[in-house]
Design brief:
The complex is a heterotrimer of chains A (515), B (633) and C (119). Chain A is mainly alpha-helical and 515 residues long. Helix content of chain A is 74%, strand content 1%. The chains are: A mainly alpha (515), B mainly alpha (633), C mainly alpha (119). Chain C: It is found in: Cell membrane; Membrane.
């Protein structure tokens, strides 16, 4: 009989994860035992402190020195890129949670039929689903584990841990209930569908390599064990699962519907945190596990990147819902980021490309949270003023807010002196160095098309006359105000003075992914 | 002697030299973002930031003095600014520190003065915010170690100048003047920008050190082209011919602004640019340098002539500013032998012209903002401090022996004389006209009978305004001698801009100097005859053709209108026509095409989850199929 | 391929048996109908009456089923530990206690939110 030895777990390296998950579990206990009126007051410090604590631990680890080996028996890799991604996700999650904190984004009773008497009663009683805090924490924990997992099975578990709470959160919007429930349902069904692809791909790759460990798959590739059919199908299906999460075409269909229906703070969390996490995982799978195979997957990634950029940029033009437009913009940005994924080469080239992607992810995440935060503040009688025509003339009624929104849009468009410029510049530069010049040309053209619809919104806000019964701009809570302030400040500072963060991304990327 | 090499950052005050820029920038940010909340203490905060910046500049200066002369150029790199093009860094050397001291020193005094001057303005906080912004941008301009960062500062001062000229934007004249300054400056900026582009393509860098090092190997044509383009930029900023027209209108801004920006500092940025680039592009010989001297002489005469005909005290002073900067340009075009004189005149001019402007502001303050000198007269008894300080400034600018202007202007004239006698004599004539118009100004304002409007009761300004005047007046007396005698400034600047091997000797009495003095005395005497002894008519007499010519700013605006504005308007119309027919047609067609595609593609998004799932499934199949195809190739 | 032959055989046999028994039953079995036999089978209790056109299905069944699965899976995790707990030693004990505590938290939540009450 085989003897089983207890595994060695590097608890300190995993501590950020454990803190976030632990806080999530404590949050559930709060839900179970704390009286209703105390719950929110207990959740807020618990959630924010745990995220801050996890962030502090990430910093400590970065200072103490980045581990050079995967932790937890090779299941989780806490390396330079992981630490950078963790830091990014934790910052993004922190500010998303400040936004989430405004309770009036969420339904008073999720299980009640929309428009029913029960819902009315819950509304009058002032019920709130404080479960959003532990749910968000679990999702954030999943986001942290997803890009760090060094093993396909752990990655799958992380994927589910990240996604399941998000499915729920999507259905909790206070207004436009049916749309919100529909989005949750769609996200769940399609998410489950894509998870199945991921799992199937994992199974096939296991059949090929005899292991789900990314490093061992890579070793099996160099050993060239044959059975290419298993390898190709497995890798392709795995790719589908991952590309679905980042919203690359042709797996992007869920994104506009879900972004539109979900409560805006949740959309902000998904547009920033999920994208960062999914890109981390995508890079790890494609660069570590099947990095040797780049001659095979590069052309396919080219195709996906082009399609994604084109679909995102072109479809955004005809959108009339501000959140759908931002969703398509997010698709286009996923395409721009994929340009960086293709820029694989020797170790130095990889480090450059990785640093560019990491920087892009950070700045894009911050700017999108800022943009969505502003969306929450422009209100009609029935909630957020979602239709673009309602935003006409906002610049005249509320110049500061419209100015900030315009600023975020310019950052998305990649105008110099905003952080978006340096993000795009870095990614495209890396891609050119990696020989993907034609792809960059497509990227630049797509950026130009994308700039068109960003600028169109700016024109709408500043040069059109406001409607007489136009939307009102609510006075933001301290949370929302600080989110917008932070995002704007970060976007300016990183646009003028990107060096510190670029340096950080470079040093994080320098060690590349551990194997 | 060639400029010294740029050494590394020694730390200390130089290491934190960026504080000079950041402190006033912080002031501007706090005052602008703080809004009305900072109204109560905003002006003190602005003054504090300017003073703090001055303290840093002084510390940097003293640290620099501690090094041997050959080691006084220090590069302080800060961060990567535009990857692959320019790094953000400071160049701390005698030249930049001299400017920093002038900007922060005079700037602080003017800040303090403005507390009093703007005390009745309900937007005083915004004014101080802009002033701080200006100081920060100007410091960036002179401290930057490369042309791109310099350009950022260059545009920054342009912006601050625009905002401050139009500060009283409710006056249509002020708004127009601001716009005019902005537009005219664009022409100059265009030259500077193209010069920077050429530098980058020719030398692969925009950093001063690298550009100057590589310029020697470049063809003469390129060097001349860059030099002339830089000169175009300098002309715009420094109101030199042919881009002089904005400066007179710029006097619409509050007087402290005229003193700080349009007399002491910003308008001298062009001189800085020429001197800074001198070693490589304006060596004192060749086309570019020659053009610089010609522009300088032409402007010094034009400015002086304009100054003779203006009844608006500030416009008369503005003409004088043009003229004095013409002297500096002239000197800067003479090569290493002239740089030090240009800078010396610039510094002493910074003091006495700020003194004169602030004095004019004090007079206006006393006269209910009246600017017409024909409505002044006899004010010396009522504004004793203003009068004495103004009179000192006046003596300094006309070059009264032993005051600042005497040393610095005479240096320029004598050096020019050795270089090119025609230009030299023209400069002497300019000095004579200066004697006339400045005397005219003083006589009309402080002497003769009172010609005040009814109800005006002149009173001396508060201490917060007179103290800066006194300090500036002291500077106007002593600075020239201090800088010139013993070639102090030339030796100090040597490591930064180079200097002739043989230092010029200073002659207290020389034929040229005596001739200049005689002409100045003649000018002053003629002014006494016309404006001191005679009654000054309250309405300007018709005057001769020449007077009209001068009153109309030598028809500069008319010339601009005929040469640039009309053709420009035609060009615009043509462009609009072409744009509508050609470019817009293309762009609109393209946009319609993309929009149409978008509209059609949009239908793919059916909203049915089943069709989404199908698209994922088909996508997966295509992906796997493609992989097979690629993998087995 | 030979490795998989027994599995294939088993699959064929199972399918064959199922098809055989389902298709033979109608012919061989006695047919005596009553009301209870015609009802849908729902965990042995009275079926909930359903309005025409489907209507809404009470959630309590699903919640119960979900809870069952959660605790069922807990057992599946416990089983391998039970087999090897002596070799895993203190480490295994601590990890398992953490696991059970985590599941207990979920249990507590369900309990406090009256997910265990039928009405």
């Amino acid at each position: 009989m085989n003897t089983i030895t207890a595994p060695a777990i590097e608890y300190l390296q995993l501590a950020p994860l454990l803190i976030v998950f632990g806080a999530g579990i404590l949050g559930v206990l709060v839900e179970a035992f704390a009286p209703r009126y105390l719950r929110r007051a207990m959740h807020i410090p618990l959630t924010l402190l745990s995220l801050a604590g996890a962030f502090a631990l990430v910093i400590v680890q970065t200072i103490k020195g980045v581990p050079t080996k995967p932790s937890a028996m090779g299941a989780v890799a806490v390396d330079g890129p992981t630490l950078f991604i963790w830091g990014t996700i934790l910052v993004l999650a922190f500010i998303s949670l400040l936004l989430l904190n405004d309770e009036d984004h969420f339904v008073p009773a999720a299980s009640a039929v929309p428009g029913s008497a029960e819902e009315e009663r819950a509304l009058i009683e002032g019920n709130v689903h404080t479960e959003v805090y532990p749910l968000a924490l679990f999702a954030i924990g999943g986001m942290l584990l997803f890009p760090a997992s060094n093993d396909l099975l752990i990655m799958f578990v992380a994927l589910e841990v990240m996604s399941l709470p998000l499915y729920l959160l999507c259905g909790l919007a206070r207004r436009r209930r049916l749309l919100s429930q529909e989005s949750a349902m769609k996200y769940f069904l399609l998410g489950a569908f894509s998870s199945a692809f991921f799992l199937y791909g994992t199974a096939l790759l296991y059949g090929y390599a005899g292991s789900v460990d990314l490093a061992k798959i890579s070793t099996a590739l160099s050993a060239n064990v044959g059975q290419d059919a298993l390898l190709f199908t497995g890798a392709a299906l795995l790719g589908v699962g991952l590309l679905f999460k980042i919203g690359a075409a042709p797996f992007q269909a869920w994104k506009p519907d879900v972004y539109q229906g979900a409560p805006t703070p949740v959309t902000a969390l998904m547009a920033s945190g999920t994208l960062v996490a999914a890109f981390g995982a995508l890079l790890r799978v494609f660069w570590v596990a099947i990095g040797e195979l780049d001659w095979d997957w590069s052309p396919i990634m080219w195709g996906v990147a082009i399609l994604t950029m084109v679909v995102g940029a072109i479809l955004a033009i005809t959108q009339t819902d501000i959140k759908r437009m931002l969703a398509y913009s997010s698709i286009a940005h996923a395409g721009f980021l994929l340009v960086g994924v293709v820029a694989i080469g020797d170790a130095k080239q990889n480090a450059t490309a990785l640093a560019a992607i990491l920087f892009y992810l950070a700045v894009y995440g911050i700017a999108s949270i800022g943009a969505f935060a502003i969306v929450t503040m422009v209100r009609d009688a029935g909630g957020e003023a979602w239709h673009l025509s309602r935003w006409a003339g906002l610049g005249k009624r509320s110049p500061k807010l419209a100015g900030l929104f315009a600023f975020f849009l310019l950052a998305f468009a990649g105008i110099p002196l905003t952080s978006g410029f340096f993000g795009k510049y870095a990614v495209f530069q890396a891609a050119v160095a990696g020989g993907a010049v034609q792809l960059v040309v497509v990227g630049v053209v797509a950026s130009a098309v994308a700039a068109f619809f960003y600028v169109r919104v700016i024109v709408l806000m500043f040069f059109n006359d406001p409607a007489p019964d136009g939307p009102t701009v609510v006075l933001p809570s301290w949370g929302t105000a600080s989110v917008v302030g932070f995002a704007a400040l970060a976007t300016v500072v990183l646009g003028v003075f990107p060096q510190p963060v670029l340096d950080l991304a470079q040093s994080a990327a320098g060690s590349l992914f551990v194997r | 002697m060639e400029p010294a090499e740029i050494l590394s950052n020694p730390g200390g005050a130089i290491g934190v030299g960026w504080l000079m820029i950041v402190l006033p920038l912080l002031g501007a940010a706090v005052l602008l973002l703080g809004g009305r909340r900072t109204d109560k203490w905003g002006h003190y905060f602005g003054v504090l930031m300017a003073l703090a910046s001055f303290v840093v500049a002084a510390l940097v200066f003293f640290q620099l003095l501690g090094f041997a002369p050959g080691e006084r150029r220090r590069g302080v790199s800060l961060y990567e600014f535009i990857p692959g093009v320019a790094d953000m860094g400071l160049l701390i050397d005698p030249l930049s520190v001299s400017f920093a001291l002038l900007i922060t020193g005079v700037g602080s005094l003017i800040h303090i003065y403005s507390i009093g001057y703007m005390s009745h303005d309900h937007d005083r906080r915004r004014f101080f915010a802009y002033l701080n912004l200006f100081v920060a941008a100007m410091l960036l301009l002179v401290l930057a170690d490369n042309y791109v960062a310099l350009f950022v500062g260059w545009e920054g001062v342009g912006l601050a100048s625009y905002l401050l000229i139009g500060f009283w934007q409710f006056k249509p004249t002020a708004a127009t003047a601001a716009k005019k300054a902005f537009v005219v400056n664009r022409v100059g900026d265009f030259g500077l920008l193209v010069a920077i582009f050429i530098m980058f393509t020719s030398f692969g860098s925009v950093a001063f050190g690298e550009v100057f090092a590589k310029a020697g190997a470049e063809s003469q044509g390129t060097i001349t082209a860059i030099g002339l383009l830089l000169l175009l930029g300098a002309c715009g900023k420094s109101a030199q011919l042919p881009l002089q027209s904005w400066l007179l209108d710029a006097m619409e801004g509050p007087t402290p602004v005229s003193a700080l920006i349009h007399a002491a500092t910003m308008v001298t940025a062009g001189v800085y640019l020429v001197v800074r680039s001198g070693a490589a592009f304006f060596p004192g010989e060749g086309t570019a340098s020659l053009v610089v001297t010609i522009v300088g002489v032409a402007t010094l005469l034009a400015g002086a002539i304009i100054g003779t005909a203006k009844d608006d005290i500030k416009k008369a002073l503005a003409g004088s500013t043009m003229s004095q900067i013409g002297y500096m340009m002239l000197a800067a075009g003479l090569g290493p032998v002239g740089y030090a004189f240009a800078i010396a005149h610039l510094i002493s001019h910074g003091f006495f012209k700020a003194n004169l402007f602030l004095g004019a502001g004090s007079v206006m303050h006393a006269m209910n903002d009246q600017v017409d000198m024909r409505k002044y007269g006899g004010l010396r008894k009522y504004l004793p401090i203003t009068f004495i300080t103004f009179f000192i400034g006046y003596l300094a600018i006309i070059g009264f022996p032993l005051l600042s202007g005497y040393f610095t202007k005479d240096g320029i004239i004598e050096t020019t004389m050795e270089h090119n006698a025609i230009l030299g004599w023209l400069a002497v004539v300019g000095a004579g006209i200066t004697g006339f118009y400045m005397s005219r100004l003083v006589f009309m304002t402080f002497f003769g009978k009172a010609r005040w409007d009814e109800g005006v009761k002149p009173h001396e300004s508060p201490a917060v305004m007179t103290w800066p005047l006194i300090l500036l007046a002291i500077g106007s007396v002593v600075l020239g001698a201090f800088l010139i005698v013993g070639n102090r400034l030339m030796i100090f600047l040597g490591p930064a801009v180079g200097r002739p091997e043989e230092l010029p000797e200073f002659h207290a009495v020389s034929p040229v100097g005596l001739a200049t003095l005689a002409l100045v005395a003649l000018g002053a005497a003629y002014a006494w005859l016309k404006y001191g002894r005679q009654e000054v008519p309250a309405v300007a007499p018709r005057g001769s053709v020449l007077t009209t010519f001068a009153r109309r700013d030598l028809y500069g605006d008319a010339l601009n209108e005929a040469l640039f504005m009309r053709p420009g308007q035609w060009l615009t119309r043509l462009a609009v026509w072409f744009d509508n027919r050609g470019i817009d047609g293309l762009v609109n067609g393209l946009a319609a095409g993309i929009g149409g595609t978008s509209g059609r593609l949009r239908r793919i998004q059916t909203g049915y989850v089943r069709s989404y799932a199908l698209s994922i499934f088909v996508g997966a199949a295509i992906l796997a199929g493609a992989w097979f195809v690629v993998g087995t190739l | 391929m030979e490795l998989y032959a027994p599995i294939l055989v088993l699959a064929v046999l199972a399918a064959g048996f199922a098809v055989f028994s389902v298709s033979v039953a109608p012919f061989t079995g006695p047919k005596r109908w009553n009301r209870a036999k015609l009802d849908a089978y729902e965990c042995g209790i009275e079926p909930t009456p359903q309005p025409v056109g489907g209507g809404r299905f009470p959630l309590k069944y699903m919640i119960t089923a979900m809870l069952f699965i959660v605790f069922d899976i807990e057992i599946i995790f416990l089983y391998p530990w039970a087999v090897a707990f002596d070799q895993l030693g203190v480490f295994g004990l601590i990890e398992m206690v953490l696991f059970i505590v985590t599941v207990l938290v979920a249990y507590a939540y369900v309990w406090r939110r009256r997910g265990l009450d039928w009405d």
